[in-house]
Every structure is written in C-alpha cells, then in structure tokens.
Amino acid sequence: MILYSSTASPFGRKIKLAAHALGLIDEISVRPTDTMNPEDEIRTVNPLGKIPSLVVEGTALYDSRVIMEYFDNCAGGGRIIPAVGIERYACLTAAAKMDGIIDAALLMVYEGRFRPAEMRVERFVEWQRDKIIRGLQSIDPAPYSGGSMPDAADIGLGCALDYLDFRKPLSWRDHAPALADWQAGFAASVAGYAETMPVDSRKAPSQ
Predict the structure, then answer these.
(1) Is residue 195 part of a domain?
(2) 43 lies in a domain?
(3) Does some domain include residue 54?
(4) What pLDDT sits at residue 115?
(5) Which of 33, 49, 109, 148 shows the greatest Cβ crowding within 10 Å of its Cβ?
(6) CA 41 from chain center: how many Å?
(7) In-domain check, residue 157
(8) Which domain holds residue 63?
C-alpha cells in the first residue's frame, strides 16, 4: 500500500496512527507529497490533489475517513470503528467533529499563509476559531481510556490537539484545559504517537 501524505498533515497523521494501532504500518510505504506542486504525482492519484490518498492494488482510496474504514476492515472490523449499532454511528459522528476542528484550524492557517495581510478577513478567522472552541468544549474531558487501541474519534482528537500545538492558530488549553490530561494519556498509550508528530519539511508546505 502506498500512502500519499506529508509530515505536517493532521489528516495524514490520522492514517499513520490508525495503521500503527491496527498493526498495518509495516505494509505501508509513505510517499512524501507536496500538494502545492502542480507536478506532484498526487494529482494523478487523486484528481482533487488532496492528501491523504492511499493506493491499494492499483485502486486509489481517499479521504481519511474512507481510509480509516478500509484499515479497520483489513484488521477484521470493529477495532477502531464499532461494527454495528448506534455505537458505530456515535463514533463516526464524534470522528466527524474532530475532522471539523482540524478543518477549521487549517482554514485559519491558510488565511494567514496565502492571503496578504491587508486582504485577510478577520470575521472569517473568528468564525473558524469559534468552531474549534465550541468543538473542544463539547468533548467529555475525562482522561483517555482507550489504551493501545484508540477509536477513530480518539485518533482524530489526538491529531487535532497536536496540530493546534504545531501551527498555533489558537491556544486550546485556554478553552478546554481538562483535555491536557486526555492528551497526555493518549500520548503515553498509543503506538506511533511520537514517530508521527507533525513536522515541517520541504515536501510538506501545504498543511
């Protein structure tokens, strides 16, 4: 399996953490990807030019939600996403909320990175910031309890908090301080956590 991603991408990191948890990481070759480069191979894999994208036996899978489900199925099902019942849809809904937090953080970063200062729309930035704050404050602040097998929502939250620390669009501890204990428990329990922390690289300027 070939995973197109970058070392900075929070959505790509979700896939790497899921692969670690499910014992699939050794089956994946990560292809460093620059989504801002019109010559990058990603545009032939995913016409949207977005990461992460996964190629399996010649078939391209995207986005991160689809790949997470695929990995869960590869591992027998019901591992990071409950297989049936309301628990399945509650987990998927919680995971979608974490994706929304990450999306809002990315939009805040992009507004500052790609738009000249005199053209930035502060109302838009505040709108995204409010989404992040509401999302974080709606999360149960109980300590992490998933052990070495986080679910899809746990993985999304871990990646969201670390991305906020990485790009610093806001200080999440000012708004949801109890999640700091959750983050510490997640970091201590989940395989691949340190190895997948977001970092800048020349191949990954876009996220």
Answers:
(1) no
(2) yes
(3) yes
(4) 81
(5) 33
(6) 21
(7) yes
(8) 2-74
CATH number (domain holding residue 96): 1.20.1050.10
Inter-axis angle of helices 10-22 and 152-167, to 10 degrees? 140
What is this structure's pTM? Answer: 0.94
Residue 40, token pair as written in the block: 């990058």
Residue 62: predicted pLDDT: 98
What does pLDDT average to in each consecutive run of 10 residues of the chain (207 residues)? 97 98 98 95 97 98 98 98 98 98 96 82 94 98 96 98 97 98 98 96 54
* Contact of 60 with 72, CB cutoff 8 Å: no
Cβ contact 205:36 at 8 Å: yes
For the sheet containing 53-56, what is the strand order?
Answer: 29-32, 2-5, 53-56, 59-61
DSSP 8-class letter at 118: G
Please list the residues that pair with 148 across neighbouring strands. none
> Is beta strand 53-56 parallel, antiparallel or unpaired with respect to 29-32?
unpaired
CB 130 within 8 A of CB 136: no
The answer on 162 and 102 residing in a single domain is yes
Q: 92 and 35 share a domain?
A: no
| Neighbouring residues of 107: CB distance < 8 A, sequence distance ≥ 6 | 124, 128
pLDDT of residue 114: 79
